[in-house]
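Translate structure to sequence.
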């Protein structure tokens, strides 16, 4: 049975296995979405422009010529993408096999860096799936729990840091900050897709400055609320809701995609409360437990 020690919820190996399947099922769904978005490596059309930025990891990868080698050969890129899908499925079926997880992490790291390099911009939304696989590289259930809780603190830090960045730059004092963000980020969409439903929605929102600016302030406050999570797990269920609402707000107002970052919100879920009753019922059916 799971237990709480010093505000850390310890999951059992049985629960760990099921959490792993949730994580890798969502990861597989993300890869399927990448396929339909034409952003897998075999779909990048052998790009020639790259943007490694000031990042030593990217420099090393390009020094080894791995992104160029894979994307420069169509069939090799197809094999790479197939291997990425295959190991993701294997991690779902056999979450206890650490070398499957390590293989997936290695492949996904290459995919992550290559996608960002040839996309011309360092995006963060895919990092969630890369990080979420790390706790499953260990077999000791205590080590898994510490790594899992470490990801929870990483999520709390990400939102808290976003709040502090806005707070100390005094962005929240700018009367039209929300409107300016929407105008800058949605201008291209309005120009290229003037007749869509969302274009109509954006035009309506641009006529409601109080609503848009108020939403920006509300979002900033919600980011600051995540500070509470550093001191207690009592309000994790509310933080979970906020961690879902905020990416939706980022997408709607700023055209910023953090949906794949949502996978980190799983660290706010009390899986023990979900799985423990089910496990008790299964044991009861098998006669392993006798009801009192």
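Result:
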């Amino acid at each position: 049975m799971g237990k709480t020690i010093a505000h850390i919820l310890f999951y059992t190996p049985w629960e760990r296995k099921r959490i792993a399947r949730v994580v890798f099922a969502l990861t597989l769904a993300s890869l399927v979405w990448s396929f339909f978005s034409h952003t897998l490596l075999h779909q990048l059309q052998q790009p020639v422009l790259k943007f490694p930025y000031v990042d030593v990891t990217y420099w090393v990868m390009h020094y080894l010529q791995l992104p160029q080698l894979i994307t420069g050969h169509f069939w090799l890129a197809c094999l790479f993408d197939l291997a990425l899908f295959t190991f993701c499925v294997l991690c779902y079926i056999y979450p206890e096999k650490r070398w499957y997880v390590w293989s997936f992490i290695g492949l996904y790291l290459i995919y992550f860096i290559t996608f960002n390099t040839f996309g011309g911009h360092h995006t963060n939304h895919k990092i969630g799936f890369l990080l979420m696989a790390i706790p499953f590289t260990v077999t000791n259930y205590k080590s898994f729990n510490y790594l899992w809780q470490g990801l929870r603190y990483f999520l709390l830090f990400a939102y808290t840091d976003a709040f502090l960045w806005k707070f100390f730059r005094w962005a929240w004092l700018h009367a039209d900050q929300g409107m300016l963000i929407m105008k800058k980020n949605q201008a291209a969409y309005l120009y290229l897709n003037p007749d869509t439903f969302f274009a109509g929605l954006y035009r309506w929102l641009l006529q409601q400055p109080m609503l848009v600016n108020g939403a920006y302030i509300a979002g900033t406050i919600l980011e600051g609320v995540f500070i509470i999570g550093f001191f207690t797990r009592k309000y994790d269920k509310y933080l979970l809701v906020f961690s879902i609402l905020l990416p939706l707000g980022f997408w709607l107002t700023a055209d910023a995609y953090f949906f794949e970052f949502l996978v980190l919100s799983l660290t706010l879920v009390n899986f023990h409360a979900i799985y423990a009753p089910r496990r008790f019922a299964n044991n009861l059916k098998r006669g392993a437990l006798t009801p009192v």
